[in-house]
Model the fold of this input.
Amino acid sequence: MASATAGQVITCKAAVAWAAGEPLKIEKVEVAPPQANEGQTPVFPRIFGHEAAGVVESVGEGVTDLKEGDHVLPVFTGECGKCRHCKSEESNLCDFLRVNPDSGVMISDGKSRFSIRGQPIYHFTGTSTFSEYTVIHAGCVAKINPAAPLDKVCILSCGVSTGMGATLNVAKPRKGSTVAIFGLGGVGLAAAEGARIAGASRIIGIDINPGRFEKAKQFGVTECINPKDHQKPVEQVIAERTNGGVDYSIECTGSQSIQAFECCHDGWGVTVLVGVPRSDAVFSTSPVSFLNEKTLKGTLFGNYKPKSDLPGLVEKYLNKEIELEKFITHEVEFADINRAFELMMGGESLRCIIKVNA
Done:
């Protein structure tokens, strides 16, 4: 049975950024109906960032794998299923739906589906989930088991999957190995959780915020290092504690790439870059490091294909193979969304649930 609002413009609340650096403002926005190959979903719980979960309200022409009432996870990157990347078992990129945070419009017609009194309001990272309703390309929506609690599995839409996947899918640590995690925020602790699941014997957490160290133990971190406590470079400190370097390192801050690479052991060390760096950042090291058989890798979304792999992660949660509750440290109402920014910037939260009830 078709939704009463299918094909119609919906008026709802959304958090709008009117200028860079200013607090978000809750506004009434008009959300146009989905066009070809798009889906529209009311967003129920969402996590601060761009992680969310919802239920499909209506779909546009040509959408065959989603229907009204489906429970879904929107994802900032997509899977068209047809391009060379999507057909490859080695990549989770997509030629057609590759993430483009600067576009602000729908890929089908170059227009926004959001407006306020006729003024276009641009999309955010392709998902725009700071809104009670959103419109997303169908290739960026993963259909999941309706038995899964949306206020828990929503954190799989970005950070937790990214961190765990960086370890399990990209680094692939051996049982009994040593792993260094740079950055103990939500993504870093998800990477640590992946190392714990893989059976690492030592998981070393590196962060300049010692307030995160106790919480890190819940994710398998066995010891922590604050670079500010040492006069030597942190990579040297790690190498001295691990007889020449760790087996694997996961960089989750976007600012310590060289330290993560240099702290790995020669001959077999593997470094995975996860954190997003500044646009002008440069990575500089000697080519001799590669001749000495150290490996450097990067990853987007933990090498998970969103539509193909996320449903399986949800099943792992339902089967109690992975834990999600320990990542969720705070919860706020939609009207208090700026409080989530404060918690993040203050280093107090891992994942903050924002209740958006359409």
Residues 159-171 form the longest helix (13 residues). The chain has ten helices and 18 strands.
